Automatic annotation (TrEMBL):
InterPro entries assigned to the protein according to its UniProt record, in alphabetical order: DUF5655
Protein name listed in UniProt: DUF5655 domain-containing protein
Residue stretches making up the DUF5655 domain: 20-129
Organism for this UniProt entry: Anaerolinea thermophila (strain DSM 14523 / JCM 11388 / NBRC 100420 / UNI-1)
Pfam families documented for this protein: DUF5655 (PF18899)
Length: 133
């Protein structure tokens, strides 16, 4: 039993995931959105790193700024923002404080279209600036 636990821990420590793996099996619309989001976030600053994990893609400097989870019908963005400090949050967002989810950040934005992404952009920028960008 101990050996199985060690094997799982070793797999987690050495597994390498890619952006492309997260795109596998997704519709062209989701792929297009994912590339647009990737380009926007990495274009904010040359120090922002893209770190694909098993269930999401993290964008970070010293800490995660945005975690992007690709689903079949939408992309969930988890931003490192305090939802209680956001006045008049958009309808496509929700407070994830105390709720289990992949990635880090308590402010979730559900992106299903380019219009939703335009709504999300100022909040992505706010999360980046809040972490010292």
């Amino acid at each position: 039993m101990v050996a199985a636990g060690k094997k799982a821990a070793l797999t987690r420590a050495t597994a390498v995931y890619t952006f492309e793996e997260h795109l596998e099996g997704k519709s062209d619309g989701i792929k297009e959105l994912a590339f647009a989001i990737q380009e926007f976030i990495t274009g904010l600053d040359s120090t922002i790193q893209e770190v694909p994990k098993k269930n999401y893609i993290a964008y970070k400097t010293s800490q995660n700024i945005v975690c992007m989870e690709l689903q079949n019908q939408r992309i969930l963005l988890y931003l490192k923002l305090n939802p209680k400090e956001i006045s008049n949050p958009p309808k496509i967002s929700r407070d994830m404080t105390g709720k289990g989810h992949y990635g880090s950040g308590d402010f979730e934005i559900s992106v299903k279209s380019m219009e939703d992404f335009e709504v999300a952009k100022p909040y992505i920028l706010m999360a980046y600036q809040k972490l010292g960008g």
